[in-house]
Automatic annotation (TrEMBL):
Natural source organism: Tenggerimyces flavus
Limits of the HTH gntR-type domain: 15-82
Domain of life per record: Bacteria
Pfam family, one: FCD
PROSITE patterns the record matches: HTH_GNTR
The entry's keywords: DNA-binding, Transcription, Transcription regulation
Protein name, as recorded: GntR family transcriptional regulator
DNA-binding listed as a keyword: yes
Length: 227
């Protein structure tokens, strides 16, 4: 594994080293700087980040629990590959927690929350079919982060934080393969925003179901390996 210059950003010093290394490696994966199936060699990562192998091992172990990395006995760490099974599991888990988050957020959001959503929607409306999939992903996640922020449920927020990276990978694959963000992404998020504004938990849950099921159905069309 060769890490090109400029791929790995410098490490700030304010936080625990293991956390910093984890964040850097997670970003490298979710932003597509390392590819699915790529071998993450501890020695190369340690040299690139100018740290010992200890924080690298700690970070890789944590990223395995998040689903970003596979640790193979006697072989090392590899970037996880999208599979039909992993997509289905993350989709069903996300559906469960986001239904709950939406049903709570719609009863708690006021003007400020909807103003935040409207700001994101305005940026989505300017997206054209040539947008980089990563830019579309950033807007998509920013919108959903608002729902979780206003649900006022710390455990739901923790679960979302634990799968957000995997959702990032899935959304990037979906956007890269189906460049219809303006026609679908903007419209669906606008419908979701309007459903939340009704302050009706059932309507919010129905809107969430329609929205994330659409993305899942597109991913299923990619003919991913089963496992």
């Amino acid at each position: 594994m060769v890490i090109p210059d400029g791929v790995v950003p410098p490490l700030p010093s304010q936080r625990a080293l293991g956390d910093l290394v984890t964040d850097v490696l997670r970003s490298m994966i979710t932003e597509g700087k390392v590819q699915p199936g790529e071998h993450l060699k501890e020695s190369a990562l340690a040299d690139a980040l100018k740290v010992s192998r200890g924080p690298i091992r700690q970070a890789l172990a944590r990223l395995e629990t998040e689903g970003h990395v596979e640790l193979r006995r006697h072989r090392g760490a590899f970037v996880s590959t999208l599979t039909a099974n992993s997509v289905e599991e993350v989709h069903t888990l996300r559906g469960a927690i986001e239904r709950l988050a939406a049903s709570r957020a719609c009863m708690r959001m006021r003007g400020a929350g909807f103003a935040e959503m409207d700001e994101v929607l305005e940026q989505m409306k300017k997206v054209d079919t040539r947008i980089d999939p990563e830019d579309a992903v950033v807007l998509d996640l920013r919108f959903h982060d608002i729902i979780y922020a206003y649900c006022e449920h710390s455990w739901v927020q923790r679960v979302w934080a634990s799968i957000r990276g995997q959702v990032t990978v899935f959304l990037r694959a979906r956007n890269a393969s189906f460049p219809d963000f303006l026609e679908v992404g903007y419209v669906e998020h606008l419908e979701l925003r309007d459903a939340l504004a009704l302050a009706d938990p059932e309507a919010a849950q129905d809107a969430i179901d329609r929205h994330i099921t659409g993305a899942y159905e597109r991913l299923k069309r990619l003919n991913l390996p089963a496992r």
